[in-house]
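Go through this chain for my students:
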Amino acid sequence: MKTRILAGALVACAISLPAHIRAVTAIPAPGANPAECSNLTTLKLPDVKITEAAPVPAATTGAVRAPHCRVLGVIGTEIHFALLLPDEWNRKFVMGGGGGFVYRIDNQASAVVNAGYATVGTDTGHQAASVTDAAWALNNLERQVNFGYLGVHRTAEVAKAIIRSHYGSSSARSYFSGCSNGGRQAMMEAQRFPEDFDGIVAGAPAYDFTAIGAQFIKDIRAAFPDPRNITEPISIATLKAVEAQVVQKCDALDGVKDGLIEDPRSCTVDVAALTGVTDPQRALLKAIYAETRNRDGVIYPAQPAGGEGEMAGWALWITGVNPQMMAASKSPSLRYGFGTEMFKYLVFNDPSFDYTRYDLSTYKKDTALAATVLNATDPNLDAFKNRGGKLLLWHGWSDPALTALASVKYYEQVHARDAKAGDYFRMFMMPGVLHCAGGPGPDTVDWAAAIDEWVEKGKAPERIVAQKRGGVGTAATVARTRPLCPYPQRAVYSGSGSTDDAASFACRQP
């Protein structure tokens, strides 16, 4: 009870921060030249220390190539950030999200600096050994709140203040873009801090964080029933055979045979009819495809078919035994790592938590406190709408980490309470795409350009072209393009032209 009271008090304090922290104002040092990168170390900001500011020359390799000023700093006790200020600024700002449990400074949008955007990333107030490590949260309410939502907000405010000082003017537009936990951060910003950003891009968002943890526990109980004897329950070769059978049955249902399932909900997979799998493996497949439930009903939606045989699919996230992960964290798969760590350190504050003994019957009560900090499930986006904000959500249908049906659920909840939600919130589903990227489907989109065009021109996106690239680096080529359509529309083949060309498809209602 004492822990719950302290947590509630900390959350309340975090929401009602003093104005000098909520709206940061830079106080330039006397005589400083704001245009000089190194002078930023003398900038005075409340509760902020800038530890480094140095120019970075243009590069010919890597994601970040444009010359820029790199600013490192710490907000409060331990919220670290890295801000990139391009030499040629387009007067716009993009904050990038952080994946997993954000074990170091992460900026999923860092490459936008090449297009002239100032951009920032943060560790949300902690450092860790790996992306699945949550031990940093043990009995540390400040870190939990910073990770949950406050670290991103405070970093955004500080970054804007530094930008104003360095360039001598505020950003004309501010955006956020993130995937997975970064997508959760994106939705948290739209819900809790609607004034922070003009446009937000949420990819494959882990927005119902505690329910995702429940799904992971359900699945690892099925895949690894004995943590003392972890073995691979189903081989990658068998998973490839399963995926091939699924695609064979479901591919042509959308009117074109192209190796992609446009919408997995249109196809029912009969696990009992699959060949090449044993009875225990059939039971495992049924458990993974199924909804996550307890006596109160559905906790989290089902897992759509697709992506089973990809190396970055089920083998990485659900059923595989990764030797490197086992050596580093004793986690055979990513769902195993994230699920157990969440319940150990963010739900129960108990490192001895045993997933084999937990049956989810008390899930709602157990996760109630953690949900107030971690979950971005509120469908009320009125404040974001009223300030003119725009939200893009995208999700790969073959995502092995976070079921795409959860994003569909949130979309439907928002539209159920606001019939005009399409004016500010649109969702795009990506056939054949895994978690944030990968898979056979076209997975590359310039989301920064898409949200910028919507905010700047006020025209909602009716069609966004995604690319599938082959090769690496300068040798990369575009192997396939496909239009992404605002949900619930789908890309429908016209009947002529290449199935690898977006021009051969039109967006239509199902």
